[in-house]
């Protein structure tokens, strides 16, 4: 689809709140949704706290992966190989990988958090579509905006923070198809909110009125009445028409 959907954790939001909601968005269908959070931007001094809170939230949702009917599998072996290749590539290029479970089961892939990631890693170039979550530290919120804006525009963006001014700032200084504030995925679940991308993540919207307009072709129709005022502009053109044209258009 194009851009990778980011989540921004602010300085003021309780980490447990943000981590739990990000965990829901990332673990639903094992991360195999087009609007799953692809990476998280976290203040540098809150990085360890976020990783711990995220790990705890995931394990509350899924105490075990083995024979767990609540957790689904990666759709096929090819995609599982792709995700494992992301992990191997990231490890070879210096990433720290935290695997949240000792083992998965068949294609039930364990959740992983990736730290110390860089742009040359495959996991930071492609849409992940799986249970891998890179976490990127930032110093100032402006650095988070810059990080997002230097990359292809995402389908979704998630901001966690209760400062109204900063919420407005995020909306004004980033571009994405849609935004959920203090949650993940939920903007796409509103049937009366337009859902769609921008640029690399797609164009146009559906849901509600916007969906009707997107999938309809507007037909322009002009109907003339019996009185034909247009005769005033029919040829032959005399001096009066020339003077009118000069007056209207040759100022």
UniProtKB/TrEMBL annotation:
Entry's Gene Ontology BP terms: aldehyde metabolic process
GO MF annotation, one: aldehyde dehydrogenase (NAD+) activity
Entry keyword set: NAD, Oxidoreductase
Entries under SUPFAM superfamilies matching the protein: ALDH-like
A cellular component term, taken from the record's GO annotations: cytoplasm
Domain Aldehyde dehydrogenase positions: 1-221
InterPro entries, sorted: Ald_DH/histidinol_DH, Ald_DH_C, Ald_DH_N, Aldehyde_DH_dom, Aldehyde_DH_NAD(P)
Reaction(s) this enzyme catalyzes, per UniProt: (E)-coniferaldehyde + NAD(+) + H2O = (E)-ferulate + NADH + 2 H(+); (E)-coniferaldehyde + NADP(+) + H2O = (E)-ferulate + NADPH + 2 H(+)
Entry EC number(s): 1.2.1.68
Record family assignment: Belongs to the aldehyde dehydrogenase family.
Protein name: coniferyl-aldehyde dehydrogenase
Organism: Pseudomonas syringae pv. actinidiae ICMP 19096
């Amino acid at each position: 689809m194009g851009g990778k959907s980011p989540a921004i954790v602010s300085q003021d939001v309780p980490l447990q709140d943000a981590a739990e909601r990000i965990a829901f968005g990332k673990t639903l269908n094992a991360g195999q949704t087009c609007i799953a959070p692809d990476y998280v931007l976290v203040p540098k001094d809150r990085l360890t706290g976020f990783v711990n809170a995220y790990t705890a939230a995931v394990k509350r949702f899924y105490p075990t992966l083995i024979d767990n009917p609540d957790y689904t599998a990666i759709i096929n072996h090819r995609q599982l190989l792709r995700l494992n290749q992301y992990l191997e590539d990231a490890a070879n290029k210096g990433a720290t990988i935290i695997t949240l479970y000792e083992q998965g089961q068949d294609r039930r892939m364990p959740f992983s958090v990736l730290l110390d990631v860089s742009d040359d890693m495959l996991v930071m170039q492609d849409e992940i579509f799986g249970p891998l979550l890179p976490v990127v530290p930032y110093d100032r919120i402006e650095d988070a905006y810059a990080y997002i804006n230097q990359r292809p525009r995402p389908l979704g963006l998630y901001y966690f923070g209760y400062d109204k001014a900063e919420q407005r700032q995020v909306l004004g200084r980033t571009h994405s198809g849609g935004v959920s504030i203090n949650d993940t995925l939920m903007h796409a679940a509103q049937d009366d909110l337009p859902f769609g991308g921008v640029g690399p993540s797609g164009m146009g919207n559906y849901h509600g009125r916007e969906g009707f307009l997107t999938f309809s072709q507007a037909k322009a129709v002009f109907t003339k009445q019996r009185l034909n005022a247009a005769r005033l502009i029919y040829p032959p053109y005399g001096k009066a028409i020339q003077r009118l044209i000069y007056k209207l258009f040759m100022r």
